Amino acid sequence: MIKSTIHPSCIRMPSTAISANRIAKLTARERARFAAARPRSAALSARNAEHLLFGVPLHWMSDWGTPFALHVAEARGAQLTDVDGHRLVDFCLGDTGAMFGHSPAPVVAALQAQAARGLTTMLASEDASAVGELLAARFGLPRWQFAMTATDANRFLLRWLRAVTQRRVLLVFNGCYHGTVDDVFVDLVAGQPVQRPSLLGQVHDLTQTTRVVEFNDLAALEAALAPGDVACVLAEPVMTNIGMVLPEPGFWPAAAELIRRHGSLLVLDETHTISSGPGGYARAEGLAPDALVLGKPLGGGMPCAAYGFTAELAARCEAAKRAAPPGHSGIGTTLTANLLAMAAMRATLSTLMTEAVYQPMLALAGQLADGLRGAIARHGLPWCVSQVGARAEFQFCARPPRNGSEAAAAMDDALEHLLHLALLNRGVLITPFHNMMLVCPETTAADVERLVQAFDAVLAELTST
Ligand SMILES: Cc1ncc(COP(=O)(O)O)c(C=O)c1O
């Protein structure tokens, strides 16, 4: 899928473990099975073709491995029902937007209460005070601003940090994803920075202001920081968008020290790693970023995002804005921090982002990861499974990758599509980008067992002689 693709020359080679022929044959069968069982989805896809680009409201939706777009009738808790009446256990959960389950009751109640009292005013409400306090207590950063999406939060933060440091360069890790922030789409290809060729309509040479190094490579990080022109390092604490790449022991403390020594700032994007626990990965691991980004599940499924600053950085941001000429900062959007969004975040932070909600999710994700490992071992495949809190990922390589290049080299589009489609046809949905699965508060042990059994059955077919 487009989101995580880095460079065509270095990724998505067919897996050596399973023949391309077998993958193609099983894929044809699964596509036929999907199509035969979904006349309503097929009819809606045909109808959409007239008025929607690619027949879908967001063109990514045509990148699932399905012959035509799956249309949803209803989503509740850990379940989806499609328009043809099939019930699916949802481990995609809107690619993390619904990490606390579909339509969580406290968020629905808060939205219902707020909806009758105003949706958007471009004014603060009492919820803003509560949300600010909750974020500060939960994440240990004292000052916050909001956005509607994690993409925007990253984009805005980048503006603030370039302004306060008066430095132009952004440093990212190869294979990263931080939303559709143009600046991050620079890959390392044979050691050289290359602007992602798939970007549409990009007229700037992003390699002029974005530097890219491999994750877990402290020497490369230090060399990239050495010129003293890096405004900030923007990173997920665990890479989750090129498959999963875990930090090696000691990587983050050493990286943080280098970043500070070179006068740069560390931004941790916890949009996905918020799956680690109610304070995110940084809190759980004792990391101390200068700024933090949260999005996706922060509003329980409503479009909301937030970014937080240390007191020192917040003071620098305020000073930069005061010192700037009057006029537009280039940061913000009209509907940001609207009344509905603030109500959703307050409900999510106070009732869902709690230890009590997370603990069973983490335990079930552990069972899921173990179950997948068992199936992989039973079928003798050289694949591995990684876990970050409520999120697990299987990858087509024998040991967890150390960096984006290794993770990309383990990808296999055709095999991925087949697995996703075959699981869908067996009643379980996983994220269409790479092989990510997420557990929500309503996911049950039986749901996990169902996924593991379906996975096992598909692997049996893939490997049968
Ligand atoms: C780490 C990270 N940051 C930011 C984003 C962007 O989120 P959104 O698409 O909601 O703007 C994503 C989306 O996958 C993400 O994984």
From TrEMBL:
Q: Name one GO molecular function term.
A: transaminase activity
Asked if the Swiss-Prot or TrEMBL record annotates the protein with the keyword Transferase, the reply is: yes
Q: Which Pfam families match?
A: Aminotran_3 (PF00202)
Keyword Transferase listed: yes
Q: Cofactor(s) for this protein?
A: pyridoxal 5'-phosphate
UniProt KW keywords: Aminotransferase, Pyridoxal phosphate, Transferase
- State the similarity comment: Belongs to the class-III pyridoxal-phosphate-dependent aminotransferase family.
Name of the protein in question: Aminotransferase
